[in-house]
TrEMBL record:
GO cellular component annotations of the record: cell surface; focal adhesion; plasma membrane
Compartmental location: Membrane
UniProt KW Disulfide bond keyword: yes
Principal localisation: membrane
Cleavable signal peptide: 1-42
Protein name: Myelin protein zero like 1
Ig-like domain location: 41-156
UniProt family annotation: Belongs to the myelin P0 protein family.
Recorded superkingdom: Eukaryota
Membrane topology: Single-pass type I membrane protein
Record field: transmembrane: 170-196
Presence of the UniProt keyword Kinase in the record: no
Length: 217
C-alpha cells in the first residue's frame, strides 16, 4: 500500500513542476510579442553622388536626412574622408548638441565650417580653400537614437583647375538642348501632318470645279 502512495506522490510532484514552468513560458511569449511590436526605423541620409569644385574655392558639401524620431540632443553628425586611391578613412568633423568638434591633426585643419541645422534635418558643412589633395570621397553619417543608420551618404569630390567649370551646370545645358530638339521635332511633325492632310484633301475633291477653284487647283 505504501509503494503505490509513494509512486502517486512522485507523479504529483512532477505535475506540480510542469505547472510551475507555465508562467515562464507565458512571460517568454509576452516578451516575444513586445519585441515584435517594436518598429525599428532608420535614418536615411541623402547626398549628391559627385561634385566638381574649383581649386582654391569654398565648397559646400550638402547632406540631408530623414528620421521619424524627434531630433533630440542625442543626435549627432560625423564626417569622414577617404582620399583618392586610399583604403582607409579619416574622421575630420563631429557635431552634437549644438557644438562643432573639427579635428586638429588633419588635412582640413581650420577649414571646416558647420553649415547645417539638425532641426531642419540638414547636416551640411563647408570646406574652405579646396586643394587638389582634397580629391576623394566624403562620408556623411547621421545618428538620431533610437533610429539606426542604414547607410551613410557618400560624395565623390573632384577638384579641378579654376575657371575650368562651365558657366552653366552640365545638367542644365543638357536639359536645354533636349528641350530644343524635342520642340523642333514636334514642330516639324505638325508641319508634315498639315502638308499630308492638305494633299489628301486635294486628291479627294479633285474633279469638282467649285471645290477645285477653292483649293486653287
Amino acid at each position: 500500500m505504501r509503494a503505490p502512495r509513494g509512486g502517486g506522490g512522485g507523479w504529483k510532484m512532477a505535475a506540480g513542476g510542469g505547472s510551475a514552468g507555465r508562467p515562464c513560458a507565458a512571460w517568454l511569449l509576452i516578451a516575444a510579442a513586445a519585441l515584435a511590436a517594436v518598429q525599428v526605423s532608420a535614418v536615411e541620409v541623402h547626398t549628391p553622388e559627385e561634385m566638381f569644385v574649383e581649386n582654391g574655392t569654398d565648397a559646400k558639401l550638402p547632406c540631408t536626412f530623414t528620421s521619424v524620431e524627434v531630433i533630440s540632443s542625442a543626435a549627432s553628425v560625423s564626417w569622414s574622408f577617404q582620399p583618392e586611391g586610399a583604403a582607409t578613412r579619416i574622421s575630420f568633423f563631429y557635431y552634437s548638441n549644438g557644438k562643432s568638434y573639427p579635428g586638429k591633426d588633419i588635412p582640413f585643419k581650420d577649414r571646416i565650417t558647420w553649415a547645417g541645422d539638425l532641426n531642419k534635418k540638414d547636416a551640411s558643412i563647408i570646406i574652405s580653400n579646396m586643394q587638389f589633395r582634397d580629391n576623394g570621397t566624403y562620408i556623411c553619417d547621421v545618428k538620431n537614437p533610437p533610429d539606426i543608420v542604414v547607410k551613410p551618404g557618400e560624395i565623390r569630390v573632384r577638384v579641378v583647375e579654376k575657371d575650368s567649370l562651365p558657366a552653366f551646370p552640365i545638367a542644365t545645358v543638357a536639359g536645354i538642348a533636349i528641350g530644343t530638339v524635342t520642340g523642333l521635332t514636334s514642330l516639324i511633325s505638325i508641319v508634315v501632318c498639315l502638308v499630308i492632310r492638305k494633299n489628301n484633301s486635294k486628291k479627294r475633291y479633285s474633279g469638282d470645279p467649285d471645290i477645285d477653284a477653292r483649293l486653287g487647283m
